[in-house]
Design a protein that fits this description.
2 copies of one chain form a homodimer.
Chain A (H helix, E strand, L loop, with lengths): L1 H27 L2 E7 L5 H12 L5 E7 L4 H7 L4 E6 L11 H7 L10 E5 L16 E7 L6 H4 L1 H6 L2 E5 L11 H11 L4 E4 L8 H12 L4
Parallel strand pairs in A: 1-4, 1-5, 2-3, 2-4, 5-6, 6-7
Helix pairs in contact in A: 1-4
């Protein structure tokens, strides 16, 4: 099928640029997270809490990906964090961040002021999983309101990530969400997947997530 | 940019096939809904409730779109409904349903037994909005757990839909979701957008939604 051939070419070109990004990150000793989820799973809220907690210990930078608006970047800027916004609307309404978009915005960040770079991807459980951007780790958020069947329905996302954050656990009493079933389904797809339960709202589980980030950051220390 | 050119060509080809589908639906007097949302907003649960309520009045058929699994089609089959599953995994992991996929599965449905065809799209607020499939109406679901900023972040989806279902309103007391702000943002993008608040779980608002469907179905009666 021609569409698949086009996709293969796009992904090959993406890999080449991802490797170039990786070289830059290695040289600058920056640990990089590609943070992915469906719409409204709580990426930006988690980022705010994370920056607030870790900013005196780790120099954090953020690349915000969105189709439209710079609302998320504005939210992050309040913490005096190095941040840049990618709007995919101007480049065809892309539903994901790719390596070239990252390459293009890196000059807008002062990389000497960043030890940990968090890339907040477009809210989408499908295509972002296909595009490496030169990151160290891929992290996904699933909120309990989305249902425990999601690993089966979006297998690639669960397959490519190293860490799954199960967010909004404060809403567990009000949702038909079977945590054991979710874990079983996720680990069947990716037996190496780490799982941390959190509530970005109440703060539950965030210490474990922060420690996970600190361990990653220590790689270059 | 070459990627945008490719996209334009794909969308043009899609329009041609969507028009062919439309001709078939007109000929068979079938009203068609393209139902879209992010992952886990409650499309299938709503469909189950809708079929249960309307199946003695309207002959309903369903096309289930998913990347992987036939879990949703199995859920719908329990109601003895005409249903067919599209798995986009086998066609490049597409993050949306396009007109050609619909065209290809129509022969698997007994169209003489269908008056209202509901197409459940892949859970994604981005790309499904770009692909017409020959439908009468585009309907989107946003759950209150996803946040009231979504119209600004996914404007095309709100722009192309005729009806917005705000789902999971039973969770409103536990979410930071400003209903007025959501409506204001959604109507700014699409002043013609109809809005119905529902809880597929508790049944609140479903009568209004069912009546909306009945009105659409009456077109051919």
């Amino acid at each position: 099928m021609p569409e698949i051939k086009v996709l293969t070419k796009i992904l090959e070109a993406n890999e080449t640029i991802a490797r170039e990004n990786r070289k830059i990150f290695n040289k600058k000793k920056i640990s990089v997270i590609n943070l992915m989820s469906g719409p409204g799973a709580g990426k930006t809220t988690l980022l705010e809490k994370t920056i607030k907690e870790l900013k005196d210990k780790i120099k954090i930078g953020v690349i915000e990906g969105d189709i439209s608006t710079s609302m998320d970047a504005e939210r992050i800027k309040r913490f005096n964090t190095e941040v840049v916004q990618i709007n995919t609307e101007s480049i065809g309404g892309e539903c994901h961040i790719d390596a070239n978009m990252i390459k293009n915005v890196l000059p807008q960040l002062n990389l000497d002021k960043i030890e940990l770079l968090i890339i907040e991807n477009v809210g989408n459980l499908v295509c972002p999983a296909e595009f490496n951007v030169g990151e160290d780790k891929k992290v996904m958020i699933l909120s309990v309101t989305e249902g425990d069947d999601k690993p089966l329905k979006y297998p690639l996302m669960f397959h490519v990530c190293q860490l799954l954050l199960i967010n909004k656990i404060d809403l567990l009493p009000f949702c038909d969400f079977d945590l054991d079933n979710l874990k079983k389904n996720a680990l069947r797809i990716n037996p190496q997947l780490e799982i941390i339960k959190i509530s970005a709202k109440t703060g539950e589980g965030l210490e474990q997530w922060n420690n996970w980030l600190i361990n990653l950051w220590k790689k270059y220390k």
